[in-house]
Specification:
CATH superfamily of the largest domain: Cupredoxins -  blue copper proteins
CATH architecture of the largest domain: Sandwich
Number of helices: 3
CATH class of the largest domain: Mainly Beta
Radius of gyration: 24 Å
Order of helices and strands: HHEEEEEEEHEEE
Strand content: 25-35%
Structural class: alpha+beta
Shape: elongated
CATH topology of the largest domain: Immunoglobulin-like
Distance between the termini: 68 Å
Strand order of the largest sheet: 2-1-4-8
Length: 153
């Protein structure tokens, strides 16, 4: 009688583990990893927001590094931001808080294109409104912020 109870317990345990693994693999993971469905104008806004990396920004005495220091954009209108490096040395555009966009991934030039070389650009399309502080990894005194306002779409 004890052997039957132990056998039934083991079978019940195996069935429970199998059901849990099936739920996790076929229901939970696809929903957790699903990308949101967004309007086309959020994914490909009609305008861009431009930020310049000023000449001499690699010097700590330079106070105007990212121009404008606070970029303002509107979701669905100008939420694609383009940084252009006008300096003679490479820079990065790196999120202060490790922001990762659900559509476009990590907000960090190093993880996507590396350092932004002189006369080159880095672009990132934000798909949610919010405030996104950033800095240059090799030159941490270089800081900036992007504010994405909610749009009407």
């Amino acid at each position: 009688m004890e052997n039957q109870a132990a056998g039934i317990s083991i079978i019940a345990f195996i069935v429970a583990v199998g059901a849990s693994m099936g739920y996790y693999q076929f229901i939970y993971l696809p929903q957790a990893n699903a990308k949101p469905i967004l309007p086309a104008q959020v994914l490909n806004p009609p305008q861009t927001t431009k930020i310049a990396i000023s000449p001499g920004s690699s010097q700590p005495s330079q106070t105007k590094n990212f121009v404008p220091k606070e970029g303002d954009a509107v979701l669905g209108a100008s939420n694609k931001v383009i940084w252009t490096n006008h300096d003679t040395v490479p820079h990065s555009v790196t999120s202060d808080n490790g922001y990762k966009d659900l559509i476009n991934g990590q907000f960090n030039s190093i993880s996507s294109i590396g350092l932004v070389l002189p006369q080159k650009t880095y672009q990132f399309t934000f798909t949610t409104d919010g405030t996104y502080p950033y800095h240059c990894e090799p030159h941490p005194w270089m800081t900036g912020k992007i504010v994405i306002a909610k749009g009407k779409f």
